[in-house]
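Board notes (copied after class):
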Amino acid sequence: MDKLLGLLADGQFHSGEDLGEQLGISRAAVWKKLKAIEELGLAVDSVRGKGYRLGSGIELLDNKKIQSNIDVDVRNKSEVHTCFITESTNDLVRNLEPVPAGVTRFCLAEYQAKGRGRRGRVWSSPFGSTISLSALWQNGEGTASLEGLSLAVGLAVVKALETLGARELKLKWPNDVLWQGKKLCGVLLEVHGDPTGECDVVIGIGINVRLSDGQLESVSQPAVDLFRVCGKTVSRNAVAGQLINTLTHLLDGFGQGGFRLFREQWCEYDAYRGKEVTLMASNRSVTGRYMGVDDQGGLLLETVSGLHIFNGGEVSLRQS
């Protein structure tokens, strides 16, 4: 199916006969594979006398093209894998062979069957329409040293997207990238290993690149994609490459000084500082004035009883 999608990715019409010849299969087999493509959520146009095409064309992930967008110094300490379909890139990045010391592994997929979001939510990733990337980072300082990492990763995403023309991006504590109040990207961290020593950190990043109106409307909260943010088509391979660049540099810095090195930059993009907000936990809510974040990435909330600090976990922020 990946070869068939590669042929159709140009958005032009291809006859069933030509597709069969190039793939070495019968026209009936081509038709079955086209039906399977439609089951992934892609629109296949069929016109008698012309053949088949993908409605808007898609850009498939290409490791060589991704590598061409990665800085030379980053290539030496990164390992990039792309795949067609996986249940979860967060699982995939951990299940491959052990990564060499000092190397960060990145895995990307065209489609996730069971993508995960924060607080147990499902992360929707329509085929070929998003960036679903997971990074495996080795950390020897234990989980306490990871405070504020999800915020810093969000900053890395913003910096990557700005190099590709995105503007007016904002950060929502602790892990969302917004544009005009709509969600463009989410971050999910999963930590495995010794709480006080060696541990593996899986950093999952989902970015909406180009979704249909119906796909955006199906999201459980206001959402937007990079096409609408930039007003033009943005290469998914370029997004992946720039994201690997900024994330690698950020992890290098974070390993040396933690979130405090990035706090000032993060605050420049803070979407809610000074506003009345409500923090939602599993069984309670707290309302107050949001005063930004501290050096560990904790949220500062001024309430009638004074200034309180909240950390990540199951706490969710909403504007009052």
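Comment from the instructor: Residues 272-319 form a domain with the SH3 type barrels. fold (CATH 2.30.30.100). Residues 69 and 132 are 17 Å apart (CA to CA).
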